[in-house]
Design goal:
The protein is 74% helix and 5% strand. It has 172 residues and is mainly alpha-helical. The protein is built from 7 helices and 2 strands, in the order αβααααβαα. The protein has one domain. InterPro entries: Chaperone_Skp, Skp_dom_sf. Belongs to the Skp family. One of its GO terms (cellular component) is cytosol.
């Protein structure tokens, strides 16, 4: 009896799933088609490159300090060696802090990305929600972030979302 009830519940659940409408979008494709996102991405890339060059420059200075220390170590007193070592360590810590302040979880790059990209993502979500509601979809998956291994293009609603955003399709 329990097996029969379990089978009926499974069949009932399966038919309920079949009644739902599914679609998917490709958020990477959508974002690449939006000029504001491309501009934001360029700005973020420029910031990142600038900061990375600064970090590399600082590490180069540390490397030069260390080479100088090694070359002069035989001539230095123990106290002078300790001072030089502490200076090198301090400089390394400063660079690590700088790197963390720029690229860390709560760093400037993260904050700038939130500032520039979040409003665009919100607009895409609103358009996606409108497409979903107006077309009667129960679920819309994201092909670029979900793990969908196969998706028939006829269910791709990315272009519909872009049209809802007023973006001309085929910019990239």
């Amino acid at each position: 009896m329990k097996k029969l009830l379990l089978l009926l519940a499974f069949i009932g659940g399966f038919s309920a799933v079949n009644a739902q409408k599914f679609a998917y979008v490709d958020s990477d494709y959508i974002m690449k088609q939006i000029p504001e996102f491309q501009e934001a991405q360029k700005e973020l890339d420029n910031l990142s490159t600038t900061w990375q060059k600064e970090i590399e420059k600082r590490y180069q200075e540390i490397e030069e300090m260390y080479k100088s220390y090694q070359a002069e170590a035989v001539l230095l007193t123990e106290k002078m060696k300790q001072q030089r070592e502490e200076a090198i360590i301090k400089k390394e810590q400063e660079v690590q802090e700088f790197q963390k302040s720029k690229f860390g979880v709560e760093g400037e790059l993260f904050k700038k990305r939130q500032e520039l990209v979040q409003p665009i993502q919100d607009k895409v979500y609103d358009a996606l929600k409108e497409v979903s509601t107006s077309s009667g979809y129960d679920f819309i998956f994201d092909k670029s972030q979900s793990g969908i291994l196969f998706a028939d293009d006829k269910y791709d609603k990315s272009d519909l979302v872009l049209r809802k955003l007023g973006v001309k399709i085929g910019i990239n």
